[in-house]
Design a protein that fits this description.
It contains six helices and seven strands. By secondary structure, the chain is mainly alpha-helical. Among the domains are: 1-43 and 53-141; 325-391, Rossmann fold (3-Layer(aba) Sandwich). The strands form three sheets. Strands 1-2-3 form a three-stranded antiparallel beta sheet. It has a two-stranded parallel sheet with strand order 4-5. Strands 6-7 form a two-stranded antiparallel sheet. Helix 5 (342-351) links the parallel strand 4 (326-330) and strand 5 (358-362). Helix 1 runs antiparallel to helix 2 (65-159), helix 3 runs antiparallel to helix 4 and helix 3 (164-263) crosses helix 5 (342-351). The chain starts with 11 loop residues before the first helix and ends with a strand.
């Protein structure tokens, strides 16, 4: 109980109440962890929205570059602090769970001790009854002895009229017989007492052996579990860098394929490079790395579309075993010019994604909408929204 942080002199009921307190604390910490995680997810969505648009996700007001950068940094810092808080909560939960497990073992051992104490009390009561019975028997034996002494005196009086030598020999024989009888009776009682003591000690030893065997079995199970967990952890650590490298390769190949299909050879090819932190770069034909901020608006839009599609495909494949089945796009033609045909190429490339069963796009570009299989037009006339199906 001291290892679990509890006073060593608690009763069974107090220990049971302490166990319930552990459950309440663990539930409270888990709820706090879940709330922190949801707040972190909300800020991640806000950061993603700020990265895509120059508008505040809350008040829809335009944001300047410096303010937007500071806001993103603040959100990122808050998420880092929440991750630290979540890590601390996990450690605290693990500590409480360990303390609860130790307290549970102490509670089980205490219940066993209470049961044994009750058994011992019952046996003491039984021995007291036996002792009272023996005292009653002893009183009866003393009464019988008194009667026999009276009879003996009477016999001695009658015998005094006979030959004293024979009487003396009989008396000596009687004394010897009584002595032997008392010795045998004392020896029998000693052996009976010894037998009871040995039986009680044997029962205690059996109980201790059983308890020790159970503890050894639990220790062995825990040791095997720890060995398995250590093996799994070592295996995961050994393959983690390789898995990440393979994920990055698959992601880069898929993004490059999508980007090649988008540019369609009409503009200089963009060679995509993705580092171990999943950050995309563009390598020129001369082999010089170009950051995304140095690309044109159209190139950034094409690269962002290809990267997000590739990353979504990779995440869906790793979690479910199959690729994306539906793709929803909001203004995919933003920052694309109509003069160089990039909007038409984007629409053609999207229509060729046969791996995706259904693609839904919201756009103001009629050229982009013309490539769709089905077109639904939403217009506002006199303050009223109207929906029409073109095909």
């Amino acid at each position: 109980m001291e290892q679990a942080g509890l006073p060593p002199n608690q009763s069974v009921e107090e220990l049971k109440s302490s166990l319930a307190g552990f459950d309440d604390k663990i539930s409270s910490l888990k709820a706090e962890q879940e709330a922190t995680f949801r707040s972190m997810q909300q800020d991640q969505k806000r950061a993603a929205s700020l990265a895509e648009e120059n508008k505040c996700p809350l008040c829809i007001q335009p944001l300047t570059g410096d303010y937007k950068t500071d806001l993103l940094k603040r959100i990122t810092q808050e998420n880092i602090e929440r991750e630290k808080a979540i890590t601390n909560l996990k450690l605290e939960i693990a500590t409480l769970q360990k303390s609860k497990r130790l307290a549970s073992e102490a509670y089980s051992d205490l219940q066993t001790c209470v049961t044994r104490s009750n058994d011992l009390k019952a046996r003491i009561s039984e021995e007291e009854n036996n002792f009272n019975n023996l005292q009653a028997e002893l009183s009866a034996q003393k009464s019988l002895e008194a009667e026999q002494r009276s009879e003996l005196e009477l016999l001695q009086f009658e015998i005094s009229r006979f030959d004293l030598s024979e009487l003396q020999a009989a008396k000596e024989k009687k004394d010897q017989s009584l002595k032997q009888y008392y010795e045998l009776e004392s020896d029998l009682r000693t052996k009976e007492i010894r037998k009871k003591d040995l039986s009680r000690q044997l029962d205690d030893i059996k109980n201790r052996i059983n308890l020790a065997q159970e503890k050894l079995e639990r220790v062995e199970k825990i040791r095997k579990t720890i060995d398995v967990l250590s093996a799994i952890r070592d295996a995961y650590r050994s393959i983690q860098p390789k898995l990440r490298s393979e994920f990055v390769k698959v992601l880069r190949n898929f993004v490059q394929q999508v980007l090649d299909s988008l540019v369609a050879g009409e503009t200089p090819m963009l060679n995509v490079v993705i580092d171990e932190t999943y950050t995309p770069y563009v390598k020129s034909e001369a082999g010089v790395d170009r950051e995304v901020t140095n690309l044109s608006g159209g190139e950034r839009t094409l690269l962002a579309f290809a990267y997000r599609l590739g990353l979504g495909q990779l995440i869906m494949q790793s979690r479910t075993g199959h690729g994306l089945s539906i793709l929803m796009l909001d203004e995919p033609t933003e920052n694309l010019g109509s003069e160089d045909g990039s909007i038409e190429r984007l629409a053609e490339a999207i229509s060729r994604f046969k791996a995706i069963e259904q693609i839904i796009a919201v756009t103001h570009s009629e050229a982009f909408a013309a490539k769709g299989d089905h077109v639904i037009i939403l217009e506002k006339e006199a303050g009223v929204s109207k929906i029409s199906i073109e095909r």
